[in-house]
Each structure stands twice: as structure tokens, then as C-alpha cells.
Amino acid sequence: MAPSANVGPKLDEPAPLFTARTTLGTCALEDYRGQWVVLFSHPADFTPVCTSEFIAFQNALPEFEALNCALIGLSVDSVYSHIAWLESIEAKFDVKITFPVIEDVSMAVSTAYGMIHERSSSTATVRSVFIIDPNGILKALTHYPLTVGRSVNELLRLLKGLQLSERESVAIPAEWQPGGEVLYNAPCLFNDAIKAHDGQAWYFRKVANDTGEQDEVTS
Length: 219
Ligand code: BEZ
What we know:
The chain contains five helices and ten strands, in the order βββαβαβαββαββαβ. It has helices spanning 48-66, 79-93, 108-112, 152-168, 190-193, and strands at 19-22, 25-28, 36-41, 69-75, 101-103, 127-132, 138-144, 170-171, 182-184, 206-207. Bound molecules: benzoic acid.
């Protein structure tokens, strides 16, 4: 199959670099080296589900920052539209959006990231999320449709799981919550697999609860 121009980056690849105009001035992905980044797109300013998501992201911003993670929003609307919408969110909901929101009228960033899904809309970004590590490598991505808002709590869980998995070389089980049991990675060598593990299955060995401590913020 011929590669599509709009598939976006794959896991463990470098996230596409960009420099873009935002509500807080020009920002470049490279400015964020040394930090985690959650880059997320929304379909359109002044729409109900997007408004609920922006309020949820802003309310959780201190938690993301405590994890050494910056939030960057994006849509194909202009910076003037973004500013008017953010002003309205502050006026109506008393929530001041303090993370930058990219204007992507040229669709340069959304195309590079595969945020435009033609069957959903040829002109609006779907609800994409890209979690980028401090070295600029894409570690997780999700795409949600226009009709269903994302769970910011699940994104925080995912970010915490990624950080813990990397820090402790463990795997994160289904429904894990911070502080819960994690798993040893399954061995790839037969001799490692057949060693006794206190009655646990070689492919499902639990590790003591993690401390729930976060990565140290170095900035
Ligand atoms: C919304 O955020 O409510 C929305 C945005 C685009 C299409 C449909 C709904």
C-alpha cells in the first residue's frame, strides 16, 4: 500500500518538529527538550465538547507540571479565534487557560502529526493526543472522534505509567493506578522464563507497589 501523506508519526519515532504561532507567542517543539509534552488537538474553537476538554486540561495543569510535562493545544482556527474563545471561557466559566494554543490555519502541524482524518472532517483536526518524551520521542498517541471528549485523568495515568515504566524498567498492567502493583517485563530468554518466581507465572510477575513518587522536576 502506498504510504499516506497524512498518517502521522509512529511510536518511538522522533515527533515532527514544528515552530508555530500560539496564544502565548511563537513556540517550537525543540524549546521543550528536557520536558515531557502533551500536544493535543481539538476540532474547533467555541464548541461544547472542546470547551469541556479545555476546562479539564486547565484544571489538571498543575498535575501535568508536577510531572515535568507541558500542555500545548492546537486547532486549525486562527490565533484571533483562540484568543476570543479563551476570553469567553474565562468570562463564562472563570477558568483562565494558561497553556499555549497553536493556530494551525495552514494545517502544517496537523498534517505532519496525522490529526486530520478525512472521513471525520477534511478541515478540522480530530481529538488527537501525542505524548512526547524529554528527548523529543513520541511515546504514546490517541485519536478520539469529534463526538466524545477525552479523559484527562486517563492521560495523566498514561503519562505516569510511561514515566514509571521507563524509570523502573517495569510494565504497567490494565487498570493500574499510581501506587499500584506493576509487572516485570516478560523474559525473552527461555532460561530466564523457567526460573522459579515464587509461584508466579513467568509472564505475569508482580513487583511490589511503586511509591507513587513522581519524576524529579529538573527545570
Ligand atoms: C464539540 O466540541 O462539541 C464539537 C466539535 C466539532 C464537531 C462536533 C462537536
